[in-house]
Design goal:
The chain is α/β, with parallel strands linked by helices and 143 residues long. It contains three helices and nine strands. Strand 5 and strand 6 form a beta hairpin.
Length: 143
């Protein structure tokens, strides 16, 4: 069974994503990490609280110890946390040479120079890392 960590899971988009995944994919477990600020509300997932494949953790994605502990048991991380992506957000990028830490801005600029960033008709920039079949989204000018 695959386990996904969803940050910002108590927000509007995160809670709908979690509900969709749990209802459509019986082979997934979801761990929701949310600070429960203005954008998150545990009531958004009250109907999922008794689901054995769902776990809620209240906490801040800026708390590295907590995130590392929760992420350790997960296969994937999906970030819906409000106000969490800015130019100085740091991302671990796994390569064959090891892990390198990039700022979001540095990663985006590096990939833009190599024509790996495409802008669709809605102004959404898409980083296309075809070798790993990974995509990251950002709205032009930041999220």
């Amino acid at each position: 069974m695959k386990k996904i960590l969803v940050t910002g899971g108590a927000g509007f988009i995160g809670s709908n994503f979690i509900r969709y995944m749990l209802n459509k994919h019986s082979d997934y477990q979801i761990v929701s990490l949310d600070k429960l600020t203005y954008a998150g509300n545990k009531e958004n997932l009250r109907d999922m609280q008794d689901n054995p494949r769902y776990k809620f953790v209240q906490g801040d994605i800026c708390d590295a110890k907590l995130v590392n502990k929760v992420a350790e048991e997960c296969d994937e991380i999906i970030n819906f946390a409000a106000e969490s992506i800015a130019g100085d957000t740091f991302l671990p990028i796994w390569t064959t040479l090891g892990i390198r830490i990039y700022s979001f801005e540095e990663l985006f600029m590096n990939l833009s120079r190599r024509n790996k960033v495409k802008v669709n008709s809605r102004g959404i920039e898409i980083i296309n890392l075809t070798s790993k079949n990974i995509k990251a989204l950002a709205y032009k000018g930041g999220i």
